[in-house]
Amino acid sequence: MATVLLVADRHAGEPLVGPDVAERLANLGISRITLLRDLSSTAVILEGWAFDPARTDEATKAVFPAGGASLRTYHEVQYVGVSSAHQESNAQWHPTSGDSGPSS
To answer: What structural domains and CATH numbers belong to the chain?
Structure first.
């Protein structure tokens, strides 16, 4: 799944995510949009299995039409899946050669 993060300061304006923009983003292969905000900036995460990151500029212009220098784009570098396959509650540590044990 391709993921792109857009971070905009106040000068970029409010992100547009209404029905028309959602349709444009869906046509670009984006299937999920997440909005995040703090006191000084707004972040938009765009994700989609069919999304080609080469089309990020089109997606950015749809969400932040004012855009400009107040907008930063981050492209995914690495995706790491994690799981809870090892349950700590029932686990016991058994030292092996060179293992210093669990840290506390």
So the answer is: 2-75 (3.30.70.1970)
Tell me the C-alpha to C-alpha distance, in Å, between residue 55 and each of 7, 46, 68.
Answer: 17, 11, 17
For residue 56, CA distances in Å to 3, 17, 50, 90, 99 come to 10, 15, 13, 46, 46
How is residue 54 written in tokens?
């080469």
Number of C-beta neighbours around residue 60 at 10 A? 19
At residue 40, what is the residue type? S
Residues of the chain under the 70 pLDDT cut: 86-104
Residues near 60 by beta carbon (within 8 Å), at least 6 away in sequence: 6, 67, 71, 73
- Taking only the tens place, the pLDDT of each residue in 73-98 is 999 988 888 888 766 555 565 666 55
Q: Between helices 19-27 and 56-63, what is the axis angle to 10°?
A: 180
Q: Cα Rg for the chain, rounded, in angstroms?
A: 20
